[in-house]
Automatic annotation (TrEMBL):
Keywords: Cell membrane, Membrane, Transmembrane, Transmembrane helix, Transport. This is Sugar ABC transporter permease. Its main location: membrane. The lineage of its organism: Bacteria, Bacillati, Bacillota, Bacilli, Bacillales. The keyword Membrane applies. Coiled coil: none annotated.
Length: 320
């Protein structure tokens, strides 16, 4: 009993020491635990489960059948609509990403030079960005409608067209309208981001350039644009990611004012990868395993193009 009594204080002292040692380090993990559990339940688990689902044939009702990578093989070798949707997405990205970057930069530089009405002009340009996509779909469906559209009405009044043009049923016209929708919506956002980068450029640089006789265009090309390189890289990468996930604009354009609810537009020339995914999941089919293979294929494509766009636009010293 004496030996046990002598060991008890030592054990209590050791436990108290461990408690003091681990106590301060344990609280951050406890505070982060609710977010980690919520993320694991509502984000991580669905992502992992969708990959498992892509290896099965399942319509949401019957039993799942394991088929391995057959969904991926069929998707890339025997589904021309998927290839076309990917091609359409890339074409529209090439239409709106360069134009949005150039116009956003020019508009930001011009707005940055304003002395009066700057905030009003910024607010007007940002309004489309906070407009709901449903409203944007209605607006552009109405503007480019064949019979009642204001664009056709204006062009015929000016004598440029003899009769209304089927904008929404023309393959390249539909793509151009979708690109215009994206540009109109995101131009204000690009302008604000570029202006935020311009505000941190030291004014001493501009004053020194002015003393050396640099003109406005030369200063813009040789000073402003190089110093905004990191901002441009950020916008390019995020635009590529957002462009590959393009869905709202084409879907709402063909389900808005016209009410046609036409999947993919004329001859599927407006079909995007996400629209193809939604169609396979909930509209035309209920092939959840096949749709999951589309989602994971798009994930790989996004990673590839994100890395490629970063390598092409980032400064050489940042490329590793």
């Amino acid at each position: 009993m004496n030996a046990e009594q002598s060991l008890a204080p030592a054990a209590a002292t050791s436990a108290a020491s461990r408690k003091r040692r681990w106590g301060p380090h344990l609280w951050p993990y406890l505070f982060a635990l609710p977010f980690v559990l919520a993320y694991a339940a509502f984000q991580l688990y669905p992502v992992l489960y969708s990959f498992v689902l892509s290896l099965h044939d399942w319509n949401g009702i019957s039993e799942k059948t394991y088929i391995g990578f057959k969904n991926y093989v069929q998707l890339w070798t025997n589904d021309p609509l998927f290839i076309k949707s990917l091609w359409n997405t890339l074409i529209m990205m090439l239409m709106f990403i360069p134009l949005t970057l150039i116009l956003g930069l020019v508009l930001a530089y011009w707005t940055f030079q304003l002395t009066r009405g700057k905030r009003l002009f910024q607010t007007i340009n940002v309004l489309p960005y906070i407009t709901t996509p449903v409203a944007i779909g209605f607006i552009f469906s109405y503007l480019f409608d064949w019979q009642t559209g204001l664009v056709n009405l204006l062009l015929t009044k000016l004598g440029w067209l003899q009769e209304g043009f089927y904008w929404l049923q023309d393959p390249w016209g539909s793509r151009a309208i979708i690109a215009l929708m994206v540009i109109w919506r995101n131009l204000g956002y690009f302008m604000i981001i570029f202006m935020a980068g311009m505000t941190v450029i030291p004014q001493d640089v501009y004053e020194a350039a002015k003393m050396d006789g640099s003109t406005g265009l030369h200063t813009f090309r040789k000073i402003t644009m190089p110093l905004l390189r990191n901002i441009t890289v950020f916008l390019v990468v995020t635009s590529v990611i957002g462009g590959l996930q393009l869905f709202d604009e084409p879907k709402l354009l063909y389900g808005g004012w016209s009410g046609s609810a036409q999947v993919g537009g004329p001859d599927n020339t407006a079909l995007t990868v996400i629209w193809k995914f939604v169609d396979e999941s909930f509209i035309s089919n209920t092939r959840f395993g096949y749709a999951s293979s589309i989602a994971y294929s798009l994930f790989v494509i996004i990673v590839f193009f994100s890395i490629l766009s970063y390598r092409l636009t980032a400064p050489k010293e940042d490329k590793r």
